[in-house]
K(+)/H(+) antiporter NhaP2 (Novipirellula herctigrandis), 405 residues
Amino acid sequence: MSEYQILTVFAAFAFAYSLIASRLEKTPLNGALVYVAMGMLFGPQVLGLIDLSVDGEAISRLAEFALAICLFTDSSNANLSVLRRVEAIPVRLLLIGLPLTIALGLGLAWLIFGDLSFFEIALIATMLAPTDAALGKAVVTNPAVPAKVRESLNVESGLNDGICVPVILFFIALASGSVEAAESSGLLMQLPSQVIGIGVAIGLALALVGGFALRHCASRGWVSDTWLQMPVIALALLCFGLAQWLGGSGFIASFVGGLTFGALTKQHKEQFLDAAEGTADAVTMVTWFTFGTVILGLLQAGFSWQVLLYALLSLTVIRMLPVFLCLIGKGFRQDTLLFMGWFGPRGLASIVFLVMVVGEKLPGSDTIVAVVVWTIVLSIVLHGLSANPLAAKYGARVDARGGTI
């Protein structure tokens, strides 16, 4: 298949979508749902117009870059005055809700997938625990949703994937047998401090230096016109790449870097972020479109009622019950808890984790792939279709009771 044929089909789709993107953003049919659906349509199992033969590593890199850029730009836009008032909420979601999600996911997977080893089951639970910043963008940027809820979900999705990285590495090491049981306690203590600590340090340092340099040059008119879109994207990828290179979490570095950059860069920030949004959207589109071209075969090969059951449980009970439990006593109404519990989409981070696990060639890899891919696809469909309607309905309910959430 000619690369020019692939280029022609993708470019035609990208052009057509860009013409109506603003209109589609206000409907349930938008973003990742359309990208993946078109990738499946043009892929080898349907029309056969595109056969990218993209290996898992290439898709993983695309997903990493797209997620790093989204984390940086989304956290740069965070409302810090609101975040200071609600910081206890994302802290609870991350320190109580996330471990509860992994534990509940592990317990239900143990009941459903009895043929997998304990550590393979633990991997499934951890890979599907983090929520996705890119898929959740339709909610965390929707002004109909109260700022307190938006900022809490934004911080949660920005940090939970980075927090899960050392847990994933720990379970991979045990599942593959590369670490003896006697060494596991030392590894459990070392990985979080190293991965998270390096990520935070790199994000802070680069945002401080990069933000100062950008403010200095922009105030003198040295950065303008077409170059406006470059600095934020480059800084996001710099945070991600350096943290990964040094053994830290690039996702945490990107989020912390964006949060710091947004806090320190008041003047010019909006024009730089607006210019970067187009590049971020383009990278995300390529990632989801590429994912769509390769998943149909995986969905067919790995389907079973157990896989479908766990995927549905992962998006509902396994996510929503921990949210309820960790936010008890915070004064939220029931519809707010349901809303926050439901909007925990799974996407780019789970794709990255999937490629990490598949590379180890574990005995249960086929089941792990099937569960994660089905959960991601169902999340794209269900969260994509429900994001705008439920956000509007929830926002109207909050307005009707005077802003009480």
Observations:
- The longest helix spans residues 184-219.
- The CA atoms of residues 146 and 395 lie 7 Å apart.
- The chain is about 75% helix and 0% strand.
- The chain has one domain: 56-400.
